[in-house]
Amino acid sequence: MGAGTEPDGSSRSDEEWERFLRESVAGTADAPKEPSARARAVARRLRSEPAAGPAGWRSYTPARPKRRTGRYAAGLLLSLALLVVALAPERVLDLFDGAESHSAPLAGETARPTQAPPATAAERPTREEPFRGSPAESWASGEAGISVPEAAAVGRMSAAEVERDLTRSRDFLVASNLDPGVLRGEHPEKAIALINPHQKDVQNLLATAFRSPSEGNDPVFLFSRFQPSHARLVGDVVKTRGRLTYQEGEHGGLQVTADVTFVYPVTRAGEGGDDDIVRTIVRRELVLSWDNPDKVLTAPGTFSVVSYKYSMTNGGCGAPTGYLTPPFGTDGRTTEPGTEVDPYDRAGPVVRGESSVDECARATRS
Predict the structure, then answer these.
(1) Mean pLDDT, to the nearest integer, of 150-166?
(2) Cα torsion through 217, 219, 220, 221, rounded to 10
(3) 279-295 per-position pLDDT tens digit
(4) Cβ-Cβ contacts under 8 Å for 68 (sequence gap 6 or more)
(5) Does the pLDDT at position 69 exceed 90?
(6) How many CA atoms within 13 Å lie on the side-chain side of 219?
């Protein structure tokens, strides 16, 4: 290698090399420095690589185009879906009907409706879906379907006292129409314990109704119960819709009015009755008085019954038995002539009273 030859093969002129040696010995401040071996190696590498500047801090590198397999897959799935709709449209409708049946229940009733619920598809109930094909499918279950208004002070009673008695009124409806034991025909002890023991006419009814039911004294006036040997509830859900209202009563008491419809899916007792499901529908209107103990003889925590009305369909038309007796199969009572009623229509008042005996009403839908 010559004196003026660089490691990479380049060379300096003789004049430059002599000047470099002279100025290096003299210590000139701006004398060119001999590059280090590391610096010369880096220079060689940079010259051998293609020029590519560093990425800027605001730079954007476009993404590489995606393959179009997703678009082709989506088109294939759409074609298959259209084929299913064309070949089996009823299956698609069933899927949507099933989704609707499990939707959230209707908002609670806060006032009397102005019309009956709209018509629904005429579908038979099943053990898995006992409310299928009825407006009750979208109603709330049990206690949740009984709307209780916000409490405010009334007469001598504070808002807290009004709220307490509204809650107790709802408790009576639950104990008399939703308690599983009562529905199986057991004695409604919890419900009866809420009735004023000093109200003689009601206590006389209770004393005789369970022992010897008659047209004037029948437990179904106040309680929903089925004879275990005749019918049993399908599942453990009862659909309800209704509300409580209140106002000041006589002698400074609180008067609570309940208007609630109960829908009971039942089947024949014993084996082999699961395919024959009937919905017994009972609407009750009760007026209860939480009396002023200073004016009326009463027991703490009990109410007096001012009035009770009820209407029912698929609950029995024969002689009173003390139970709701839904007709099954070819029971002749299902074909007897009678007034047709829509048991889900809550727009009008309840028309059947305490001791009235009217013809058997036939449900236009159940």
Answers:
(1) 96
(2) 50
(3) 999 999 999 999 999 99
(4) none
(5) no
(6) 28
The DSSP-derived string for 211-263 is TS--SSS-GGGT---B-TTTEEESSS--EEEEEEEEEE-GGG-EEEEEEEEEE
Q: Are the C-beta atoms of residues 162 and 253 closer than 8 Å to each other?
A: no
Q: How many CB atoms lie within 10 A of CB 184?
A: 14
**Cα end-to-end span (Å), the chain:** 111
pLDDT exceeds cutoff 80 at 170:
yes
In this prediction, residue 65 carries a pLDDT of 44
102-149 per-position pLDDT tens digit: 557 789 999 999 999 998 888 899 999 999 999 999 999 999 999 999
- Please give the structure tokens belonging to residue 313: 């369909």
Length of the chain: 366
Extents of the domains making up the chain? 127-363
Alpha carbon 255 to chain centroid distance?
31
Residue 182, token pair as written in the block: 């009562």
Cα–Cα distances in angstroms (integers) from residue 214 to residues 61, 82, 177, 319, in the given order: 90, 62, 20, 8
Residues 254, 168 contacting (CB under 8 angstroms): no
Q: Is the dihedral of CA 208, 213, 218, 219 positive or negative?
A: positive
